[in-house]
Specification:
The complex is a heterodimer of chains A (about 325) and B (about 800). With about 325 residues, chain A is of the alpha+beta class. Chain A has 2 domains: about 90 residues; about 220 residues, BirA Bifunctional Protein, domain 2 (2-Layer Sandwich). Chain A contains 11 helices and 9 strands. In chain A, strand 6 and strand 7 form a beta hairpin. The longest helix of chain A is centred in the N-terminal third of the chain and has 40 residues. Chain A is rod-shaped. Chain A starts with 6 loop residues before the first helix and ends with a helix. Chain B is of the alpha+beta class and about 800 residues long. Chain B has 21 helices and 43 strands. In chain B, strands 29-32-35-39-38-37-36 form a 7-stranded mixed β-sheet, with helices on both faces. In chain B, strands 4, 5, 6, 7, 10 and 11 form a 6-stranded antiparallel β-sheet that branches. Chain B has a 5-stranded mixed β-sheet with strand order 14-17-20-21-22. The longest helix of chain B is centred in the last third of the chain and has 19 residues. The mean pLDDT of chain B is about 95. The chains are: A alpha+beta (about 325), B alpha+beta (about 800).
């Protein structure tokens, strides 16, 4: 027995030294000491053949167990010391993370486009298609078919842009002629919106622009009533502008009857709540149906229209409409 | 229109208070824009707070030229110091003073104030501060017999509420107080008092026809002309009550005769005209079209030239009135007038509009005639006016009426089906209710189980013509707020067209790449074509021209988005934005054979300076032709179109050689390049600036119809071979790649240029290109021989076809 060291004590001592090795150098020294070629354990395991046969099994088993325990302790301590070293190195590698990060380009869609896309999404979700019509339009489609006869003040040179050499050809003053074109193109049912650019002969100032944007909506089907108009416009405005009260009051438009002005409740920056007019709407006038060959006894429908510029201006608190058309990057860049 | 409620309430006995009445009017379509209190509001403190004051002294304010510091006796123990800015204030005047705490007509409470450092313990009032006049020249100076400290409330007329109404164009009948009274009756059920149309005694000598004759030459423009003669007229001031009502309704008192015509117009919506009979040549009244160029000097002292399209009321010699719009000086009633011819007529609405627009003259009278007045209205207004002439001007009415009237056609009764009411409104209105509503509106109703037969009153025959008109009336009086909100069940296919989808994708991609979207005016100056350097015969000089453009800068519809964006760049550069990237998607306008326009859309981007993220260790590069081509190819790729830059085009507005055409599937989808320096100069833009235009219809046309098929280049090795070749500088990279691709065959999956070099170690006239070949076949591993074969074929073709030398 005397030639065989106490393997348990040996392992315990080795593990204790390894665990307290302060750095990788000391750890290597401990490895040499306990597992190196000259280490007692190494020598013991190398000399098993010289032991009496009845001891070889036990010594071999215990010796190997001790070696594995020591190796495990070495690995663990090594990982630990390495992590510490890396941690220190990382700590030393300082950076001011509040400096601006690398820039990535981000432009912006125009606020009118943004509103238009939202409007389109809401109506696409309701089953409406997005229709289109020309801006250089006939007086018939823009006015006559919409119950605004010749001689009406809106058809005068002071209100409407006319095209040189044209026979009552004009820049459309509203998106409503798309109603006519859509209905002329095919039979009901019709569920469309028509966003677009329109023109009126107003001088440019903070609240007027000779070019602006509207969205027209038209639904024609069997059984459509004013209740559906009210439901549709209320749902739409609440989707677009948030959960606000929506009010309709009777109004007059040549191509709808009954006609209404649509307002939403709006609280200004002083906390005052008022009705803000945002749209016009109404039941399609039977004359309009007659103009496009729809049977007004079978089909009913509603139409509505509103200004995209106005909604964009309300939403973003833009007080001067000219900003929308200057292409000023200091303005446009705010909407990314 | 201004509606004094005190006047309204004389005709309709509603018990709604002012605010409730305003709400009800708005809810039924007579929109109340504004509610104004005229005079001192009735509040618990206002009797004490508005006092008669005596101005004791008036001194110049030490620090303000226009202000005076007054000492005013307002009945308190000591005089009160008040700062006043009115030019007419003077010591010794009796004035109206509002003390701190007074509630003003707008509802605001008056406080103590300091004006330029001097304390003011009240305010000396003008009529405009009390909303009794639109403007005031100065303070209100009262009678001297009034005692200091007494309440002003007892001196001024009682306060009144005025509603400012926005009438819809179909409601000509509401352009008079009585019309609104009828409306209030209809919407509230309040008792409506009938208008008193009893004539005064007809005690003037003779018959109207003895004094003047009437001839209507243009009955198409004048459906009714009615006139009466009044003698012994005493022109003078109007009584206070009438002046107050006129002022409350926004008109000024002139003299009793003119005031009566205005008063009756405000009440009935029927404009009247009073002539001095002694100034009419003939005396004769001729209703005729004006001669071409015929002059008239109107009341404002202006001489106007008329045309044959204008209707006039003339005497035997010349026009005395532009019919329904404005009178001439010579025949007006003035102080010396004793014999009056009073006119009540109806004129053709569209003709009034044309004349009013043509002459730039819009008056209270023309505004009412524009809508077309019923021919039943003149006798009503005439009777009221004659009685007032008798009562207020002592006039003696001559028996007999000059009256020419186009034949009447009674309106046909309208059938109103109950089912139709329900179908349009989406709510059941009982036949009893609709009967009641229509009767209150003045209709005669023959009730029926399925339908009513309705005869509309004469004052609504212009706008109640069809069944749908009656449905609207029933709906608005029943209350649109009572109709439920429902969503229809839409059985339609929602969709976006291919162009709509392409525009959406392109716009979003451009914005994501750092470009900001602009919207510029679509009408542009015609000389944009010159600024763009377009040759005289360039097709793009054909434009849609606006005949009544606001200015030369907005004269024609654009053929290109480039000028608008260059103007935006100029604007930005003028505002210290040296770098930027901006784009617009929109239509261009090409004159079409049908008289309208083809309106193809394009996307144009302009990049200037060195746009892109700039940071403490990042500096973007200045733009050049490759900024434009690269963006164009990426944008096209974003909609699935594989575009290539092709050299050798000559867009006149781009740099003669630093420009490329973008093609895909054999068609041109766009153009990109550096903007020509002359064009930059013409638009006052500082370079560098590049532009890119993509044609939306072309992109849509070449968009792949089929979904892309997966190619397996993952489970097989993919080889790359890099070649460095020297080629003559006249050979384009695109050509080199084309040659390599053709020679490489199917196994050559890709060929691209990854470096380009000219200069040291490259012979003059040559460039060095580095080309990477990608070689693979889906599903099969190629042999080395096959790979080398592809490479060698490419090298050989480049050598033979473009004179390339392989660099070692």
């Amino acid at each position: 027995m005397s030639g065989i060291p106490d393997l348990t004590a040996l392992a315990d001592e080795a593990i204790a030294q390894i665990s307290s090795a302060p750095d990788l150098e000391a750890l290597e020294a401990a490895r040499v000491r306990f597992l190196g070629r000259k280490a007692p354990l190494t020598e013991l395991l190398g000399s098993i053949g010289t032991l009496p046969p009845e001891e070889r099994g036990r010594v071999g088993k215990d010796g190997n167990a001790a070696r594995r325990a020591i190796e495990a302790a070495l690995d663990q301590r090594h990982d630990h010391l390495e992590a510490d070293a890396m941690g220190a190195a990382l700590e030393a590698d300082t950076a001011d993370v509040t400096l601006p990060g690398n820039g990535f380009a981000l432009g912006a869609l125009h606020p009118i486009t943004q509103v238009r896309l939202e409007v389109e999404e809401i109506f696409l979700g309701m089953g409406y298609s997005v229709a289109d019509g020309p801006e250089v339009e006939t007086g018939f489609n823009n006015f006559t078919a919409l119950n605004t006869p010749d001689g009406h003040p809106a058809r005068s040179e002071s209100d409407t842009f006319f095209i040189e050499g044209g026979d009552d050809v004009l820049l459309r003053t509203q998106t409503s002629p798309v109603q006519i074109r859509t209905m002329q193109a095919g039979p009901p049912p019709v569920y469309v919106i028509a966003p677009g650019t329109v023109y009126r002969r107003d001088d440019v100032d903070a609240t007027h622009s000779p070019m602006f944007h509207q969205v027209e909506g038209l639904a024609v089907d069997e059984g459509l009533s004013f209740a559906h108009l009210k439901g549709t416009i209320t749902y739409f405005l609440q989707q677009l502008l948030g959960d606000r009260d929506v009010r309709v009051i009777p109004h007059f438009f040549p191509f709808t009857e009954p006609s209404v002005d649509v307002s939403v409740s709006w609280t200004d920056k002083n906390g005052r709540t008022d009705w803000l007019e945002v749209a016009g709407a109404g039941m399609v006038d039977p004359n309009v149906f007659a103009n496009v060959g729809y049977d007004p006894e079978r089909w009913t429908g509603f139409a509505f229209g509103f200004g995209l510029d106005r909604i964009a201006m309300i939403r973003h608190a833009i007080s001067d409409i000219r900003l929308l058309y200057e292409g000023d990057l200091r303005f446009l860049g705010q909407f990314s | 229109m201004k509606l004094p409620l005190e006047w309204l309430r004389e005709h309709v006995a509603t018990d709604l208070d002012d605010a409730a009445l305003a709400d009800r009017l708005t809810a039924t379509g007579t929109a109340v824009e504004r509610t104004i209190t005229r005079g001192i509001p009735v509040t618990p403190g206002n009797r004490e707070a508005f006092r008669i004051g005596k101005v004791l002294t008036a001194e110049q304010h030490p620090d303000a030229d226009r202000l005076r510091v007054l000492s005013v006796d307002t009945g308190d123990d000591a005089p009160r110091q008040i700062v006043c800015g009115a030019p007419n204030v003077a010591a010794g005047q009796t004035v109206a003073v509002a003390l701190p705490g007074a509630v003003m007509p707008g509802g605001q409470k008056l406080g103590k104030a300091k004006l330029r450092g001097v304390e003011s313990l009240g305010m000396v009032l003008s009529e405009s501060e009390l909303e009794m006049a639109e403007t005031s020249e100065g303070i209100l100076v009262l009678d001297d017999h009034l005692a200091a400290g007494a309440s002003v409330i007892d001196v001024l007329p009682p306060p009144g509420t005025i509603l400012e109404l926005e009438l819809t164009p179909n409601r000509g009948d509401c352009q008079g107080i009585y019309g609104i009274a009828r409306e209030v009756h209809a919407i509230t059920g309040a008792v409506l008092h009938e208008l008193d149309t009893t004539l005064p005694p007809e005690d003037g000598a003779g018959q109207a026809g003895d004094y003047v004759s009437l001839r209507v030459d243009a009955p198409d423009l004048c459906p009714r002309y009615m006139a009466r003669v009044l003698l012994d007229v005493a022109v003078g001031p109007s009584p206070d009550w009438m002046v107050r009502r006129l002022e409350a309704a926004g008109m000024r008192s002139i003299n009793n005769v003119v005031d009566i015509t205005n008063y009756v117009m405000l009440l009935t919506a029927q404009p009247l005209h009073a002539f001095d009979l002694d100034h009419l040549a003939g005396p004769e009244i001729v209703v005729r079209r004006a001669g071409e160029g015929e002059p008239i000097t109107t009341l404002d002292g202006q001489e106007r030239k008329l045309t044959n399209d204008h209707l006039v009321i003339a005497d035997a010699e010349k026009p005395a009135v532009i019919a329904g719009i404005f009178g001439a000086e010579f025949a007006e009633v003035s102080e010396g007038t004793t014999r009056v011819l009073l006119e009540a007529a109806t004129f053709d609405g569209p003709s009034i509009i044309r004349t009013s627009l043509g002459l730039g003259l819009r008056t209270e009278s023309s505004a009412r005639f524009e809508k077309g007045q019923p021919t039943e209205l003149p006798p009503v207004a005439m009777a009221i006016a004659c009685r007032l002439m008798h009562e207020l001007a002592g006039a003696a009415l001559v028996p007999g009426v000059l009256d020419q009237r186009a034949p009447d056609h009674a309106p046909a009764p309208i059938t109103l089906r109950h089912a139709r009411v329900a179908a349009i409104l989406g709510v059941q209105v009982s036949p009893d209710e609709s009967t009641q509503i229509l009767q209150r509106l003045g209709c005669q109703v023959q009730p029926g189980d399925d339908a009513h037969v309705v005869t509309v009153p004469w004052w609504r025959t212009a706008d109640l013509v069809r069944e749908i008109d009656l449905v609207e009336e029933v709906g608005r009086v029943h209350g649109l707020d009572r109709i439920p909100a429902e969503l229809p069940r839409v059985e339609a296919q929602a969709s976006l067209s291919a162009p709509q989808q392409v525009v959406r994708r392109l716009s979003r991609y451009a914005a994501d790449q750092g470009l900001s979207e602009a919207i510029t005016y679509r009408f542009v100056p015609e000389h944009d074509a010159d600024r763009l350097n377009l040759p005289a015969d360039d097709e793009r000089r054909r434009v849609i021209r606006i005949s009544n453009a606001l200015s030369d800068e907005m004269a024609v519809m654009r053929r290109s988005l480039v000028p608008g964006l260059l103007r935006a760049v100029e604007h930005n550069q003028a505002h210290q934005q040296r770098d930027g990237a901006i784009f617009e998607v929109g239509r261009t306008y090409i004159p079409a054979a049908d008289g309208l326009a083809d309106e193809p859309e394009e996307l144009t981007a302009v990049l200037f300076g060195a746009p892109g993220p700039r940071g403490w260790r990042q500096a973007p590069a200045e733009v050049d032709v490759w900024s434009a081509t690269g963006l164009g190819i990426a944008l096209a790729a974003s909609v699935g179109v594989h575009a290539e830059a092709v050299a050798g085009v000559k867009e006149p507005w781009l740099h003669p050689v630093r420009q490329a055409r973008l093609t895909a599937g054999g068609i041109v989808v766009g153009v990109a390049g550096e903007v020509h320096p002359l064009v930059l100069k013409a638009f006052d833009v500082k370079g560098p600036a590049v532009a890119l235009t993509l044609r939306i219809p072309a992109l849509v046309q070449v968009q792949p119809a089929e979904p892309r098929r997966y190619v397996d280049l993952i489970s097989v090795p993919v080889s790359t071979r890099d070649l460095a070749v020297l080629v003559p500088e006249t050979v384009t990279a695109a050509h080199v790649l084309d040659v390599a691709r053709e020679a490489g065959g199917d196994l050559l999956r890709g060929a691209e240029v990854f470096d380009h070099y000219a200069g040291d170690q490259v012979p003059d006239g040559k460039v060095s290109l580095a080309v990477r070949l990608t070689i693979a076949e889906p599903g099969r591993t190629l042999t080395d021989d096959e790979i080398e074969g592809v490479t060698e074929r490419a090298i050989a073709a480049l050598r033979d076809q473009v004179g390339a030398e392989l660099r070692s």
